[in-house]
Design a protein that fits this description.
Strand content: 5-15%
Distance between the termini: 78 Å
Oligomer: single chain
Radius of gyration: 28 Å
Low-confidence stretches: none
Largest sheet: 3 strands, mixed
Number of strands: 3
Strand order of the largest sheet: 1-3-2
Helix content: 55-70%
Order of helices and strands: HHHHEEEHHHHHH
Mean pLDDT: 81
């Protein structure tokens, strides 16, 4: 009887061990499969991002569906790539060119109401001294930038002097005007958010990806697509970004947010 009881106990122990091993194997296999599935999803996301960057992340036009580009480009001057703008010339460029173009857009009765509203607000802020707007010699960016100046305790809208001068020389007058207006409106959407608290939370002069996404979505719906419908020039890069957003169902999907994070932030 003792041997029979011991055998039963041994059988029970073996059964429990086999069950535990089976459970461990199943759990391990499930974890491995989940990890592999996660890797597969991440790899597909990387491949999709790279494809999006290759297709939508450069300023080469879709000539087949973006004929506007050909009407705006001027004969390329090789010396453009050597352009450098110092602060003195930047001040002149701002006073004689940038500010008049922005003011003209604000006063243009044929301009989009949203554009006029944004520019009206911005120029009022500049006039009251709440916001400083200028052309800078800083070459760390090529378009516009919204920053907070901790010495002056002011929000600033900076235009890249080099970027402005390259567009002024390389595009015709209408394209140059639209470039300045689009850049200004884009930054005017950012500026109310540019505070010391926002700056510290998201890193110096680096708007959070969600803020950049919000701004681009507004620009796509309120400026880029309406301009394109009018035959105006919201740059081929902007049009590509609009097309990508459409592919995402005009929704801030993971695909869209990854692109914004890598290419636009």
């Amino acid at each position: 009887m003792k041997e029979s009881s011991g055998s039963r106990k041994g059988a029970i122990v073996r059964t429990v061990l086999y069950t535990l091993l089976s459970i461990a194997f199943i759990v391990g296999a499930c974890a491995w499969l989940m990890n592999e599935n996660k890797k597969g999803i991440e790899e597909k996301a990387k491949q999709q991002l790279q494809a999006d960057l290759n297709l939508y992340g450069n300023d080469q036009p879709f000539l087949e569906d973006y004929p506007i580009e050909r009407d705006y480009r001027m004969p390329l001057d090789p010396s453009i790539s050597e352009v450098h703008v110092d602060d003195q010339y930047g001040d002149l460029l701002y006073t004689k060119s940038v500010l008049p173009e922005i003011t003209a857009a604000r006063d243009d009765p044929h301009e989009l109401p949203f554009v006029r509203k944004q520019l009206t607000w911005l120029l009022q802020q500049v006039k009251s001294g709440e916001i400083i707007m200028k052309v800078t010699s800083n070459e760390d960016f090529t378009g516009g930038a919204s920053v907070y100046d901790y010495k002056l305790h002011k929000r600033m809208l900076l235009f890249s002097g080099r970027g402005v001068e390259i567009v002024r020389r390389g595009m015709n007058a209408a394209a140059y005007h639209d470039f300045l207006v689009q850049t200004t409106v884009h930054e005017s959407i950012h500026l109310p958010k540019i505070t010391p608290e926002f700056d510290k939370k998201n890193g110096p002069h680096q708007p959070h990806v969600t803020e950049e996404s919000r701004t681009w979505i507004i620009m796509i719906k309120e400026v880029i697509r309406p301009w394109y419908a009018q035959g105006r020039y919201p740059s081929s890069m902007s049009w590509k970004i609009s097309k990508l957003f459409a592919e995402c169902g005009d929704t801030a999907t993971d695909r869209w947010m990854r692109f914004v994070d890598v290419r636009l932030s």
